[in-house]
Amino acid sequence: MRVLDDRFYHATITARSEFAPDLWMLRVRAGGEFNFIPGQFATLGLESDGKRIERPYSIASAPFENEIEFFVELVPEGALTPRLYALQPGDKLLMRKVAKGKFTLDTESGRKHHLLICTVTGVAPFVSFVRALSKDWKEGRFDGSHKLYLLNGASRPWEFGYKDELTRAAAELPWFTYVPTVSRPWDHSEWDGEIGRADDVLRKYADHWELDAGNTTAYLCGHPDMIANGKAILKRRGFIERTAVKEETYWIAPR
Ligand SMILES: Cc1cc2nc3c(=O)[nH]c(=O)nc-3n(C[C@H](O)[C@H](O)[C@H](O)COP(=O)(O)OP(=O)(O)OC[C@H]3O[C@@H](n4cnc5c(N)ncnc54)[C@H](O)[C@@H]3O)c2cc1C
């Protein structure tokens, strides 16, 4: 890797594991100080034919961890992900030294409920929220007064990635509720959880959990269509204040 630029770390991959043929977890050691707030993204890159290709990736790890974790989907025709996918532990990649993004937990608005809605890799920032708050809760820095409700959508059960970790967290943490939902349950007779896209079940769960615009901030992350549909549903429920809905759209939907 030839980039000599002090805006970048030459980060080292320390671990990778595959959840599905096109979904994998990647952990990296930055090689220097890297500060972030849960919900922010890092910019990863590689040099190819003398050109730098960079893309943003939400951070799944919490700031207290000594490595930075990502949950990535392979886009077969994409410029970066096929190259990222080929990397193994010990390999290097470029990582900008500064994390960015405003998709962070809003604890200032007075709304104590947080409705988190995502598709597949869009769960990453929410994993960071839960890991960070869980440690704070166990060490007495968080009193549990903010409640997190996570609707995690995927087409098929193997796409969740973090389902086991989040299910365990929900069983342990009184302030965290987790619902994974599968939109293509056929072929998966073993799936006994919720069925439907995350935006399809959003209204039902918002009612069930008594979440409204007065007490809740909503966060939508991942697939652009889910975000557009989810925002329309939330708007009809009165989520009209600009700060009541936060979004992180991972790509632009083709028109
Ligand atoms: C703030 C932010 C955070 C992000 N966090 C993550 C993350 O945590 N994990 C992750 O996997 N991606 C994440 N993304 C998407 C990521 O930045 C890249 O766009 C993605 O990895 C594809 O890169 P690529 O170079 O391989 O494809 P590109 O060459 O950039 O894209 C090729 C085509 O595929 C479309 N596309 C891009 N991503 C997808 C997708 N997932 N499914 C279908 N079509 C797609 C693009 O719109 C484009 O038309 C994030 C994006 C943003 C803006």
Low-confidence stretches: none
- What is the level 1 CATH name of the largest domain? Alpha Beta
The total count of strands amounts to 12
Number of domains: 2
- CATH names the topology of the largest domain as Rossmann fold
Beta content:
25-35%
CATH superfamily of the largest domain: Nucleotide-binding domain of ferredoxin-NADP reductase (FNR) module
DSSP helix fraction: 10-25%
User: What structural class results from the helix and strand content?
Assistant: alpha/beta
- The neighbouring-strand order within the major sheet is 4-3-6-1-2-5
Principal-axis shape: globular
Radius of gyration using CA atoms only: 18 Å
Topology diagram in text:
Elements: E1 8-20, E2 23-29, E3 41-48, E4 51-58, E5 68-73, H1 81-85, E6 92-96, E7 113-119, H2 124-138, E8 147-154, H3 163-172, E9 176-182, E10 194-195, H4 198-208, E11 216-222, H5 224-236, E12 245-249
Parallel strand pairs: 7-8, 7-11, 8-9, 9-10, 11-12
Antiparallel strand pairs: 1-2, 1-6, 2-5, 3-4, 3-6
Helix pairs in contact: 4-5
The chain binds flavin-adenine dinucleotide (FAD).
